[in-house]
Amino acid sequence: MQEFLLPPLDQITTDDERFMREALKEALKASKAKEVPVGCVIVKDNQIIARGYNQVELLKDATAHAEILAITSAESVVDNWRLKGCTLYCTLEPCLMCAGAMLLSRLDALVWGAPDIRLGANGSWIDIFSTKHPLHTLQIRSGVLIEWCQQPLKQFFQQRRKENDARKNGE
After folding, report:
1. DSSP conformation letters of 73-108
2. Each residue of 91-137: pLDDT tens digit?
3. Containing H/E element for 140?
4. Nearest to 71 by CA among 56, 90, 45, 92
5. Each residue of 12-35: pLDDT tens digit?
6. Active-site residue among 67, 75, 147, 171?
7. 26 included as an active-site residue
8. 140 pairs with which residues across the strands?
9. N or C terminus: fewer CB in 10 A for the chain?
């Protein structure tokens, strides 16, 4: 699988882009591990306190999404399950499971890059965030570095289709 590129630092103009670039570094780790290339970082007080990347295949665990792993790590760092004052940056729109974990952990904000038409829970498939939560409001910004976040996913699934076709043809 070809390695994907990160956006050049001279093209990064906002904190959201800077932290999304860090999430892309995590997606690169997933890609190298032959996992769906999704990466995540959690930021508090303008500092990254946790990182995660998809490890579903490695851990043989359907819940080992980048967001879940980063949330668990951040909760350990702050020694609390409540992640008040934290922002989660993820290269892909969260699924329903991850969106639920974000609400439960009381994150202040979510910033994501590429939409997920198959499982996205912020409008691409369903929108769990459109219903006002009785206890918590999560600020959301989407489409940050969208092209850069889509690139590794497109490469991953193109490669997977190519390998499946080769297997079908007995190669």
Report:
1. HHHHHHTSS--TTEEEEEEE---HHHHHHHHHTT-S
2. 999 999 999 999 999 999 999 999 999 999 999 999 999 988 888 88
3. strand 139-142
4. 90
5. 899 999 999 999 999 999 999 999
6. 67
7. no
8. 110
9. C
